[in-house]
Model the fold of this input.
Amino acid sequence: MTRHFLRDDDLSPAEQYEVLSLAASLKQAPYDSQSLAGPRTVATIYDKPTLRTQASFAAGIAELGGNPMMVDGTLAGIGRRESVADVARVLGRQASVIVWRTYAQAALDEMAQYAGVPVVNALTDEFHPCQLLADLLTIREHKGELPGLTVAFVGDGACNMGNSWLLAGATAGLHVRIASPEGHQPEPQYVERASEIARETGATAEVMTAPQAAVAGADVVVTDTWVSMGREEEAAARLAAFADYTVTADLMGRAGPDAIVMHCLPAYRGKEIDSEVLDGPASVVWDEAENRRHAQKAIITWLLRGTEVTEEGLL
Ligand code: NVA
Done:
């Protein structure tokens, strides 16, 4: 069976632990996995802007012994010039893994259905699961074992990062609190799914409006842009809606002792987070950015291991 990483809950709690442990060991010994030796090719496609994702996949794929192939999403016109299914069948004959940043989760699902090789979500409107692997690795490095820690996500809970924190956090056994204004809270389906996973892991998932309540005693405070890619036309309304959700030094003062602050970047200083917090001692954002590479190397290696044992012998 070909495994994919399309959303955070594609990994069971045990599998997520395994991938994070592999990421930690690859951080110590970057060339220990040569899962793409040959070199085998990974097709990477970006339909939205990117810096960290493109850089960390390209560097990580090279460290795994592989060849990072850039497919220009604009030239390819996936879903417009030809169907997602046709692109999937073509790329699946050239590459051992397909990495795609796009808009609709349904398009990514279709890519996975037809590719015949593992497909990795490099961000969709709904989820950003590679970021969450990097973030969980970062928390482990700074706070130790994950189960029982409390994470407060402050801001746009209805964006990909809010959804991914719910699912990945529940999988990791974290207590996840999302503080967002009405109208910008995660859809009930994601809260329900997180609660379902939480019953197995001992996690909890809560959505609230007050940032102060979410942050109280938290081990980790997280935020993200108020205007996700593709939402630029709503910028003015969003800046107004989120005006009381800035992560300030004062808000951080309500978190637990030695709380860390995280942001997937790019950050808009003075909007979702103040400079003194982002650039201050609690910030671990550069570790997060680095850990994208280690986490993505781990998920690629792990997916290929799973796929290699199939009877179709796809790879
Ligand atoms: N929520 C943000 C994440 C950026 C990495 C966006 O989708 O633009």
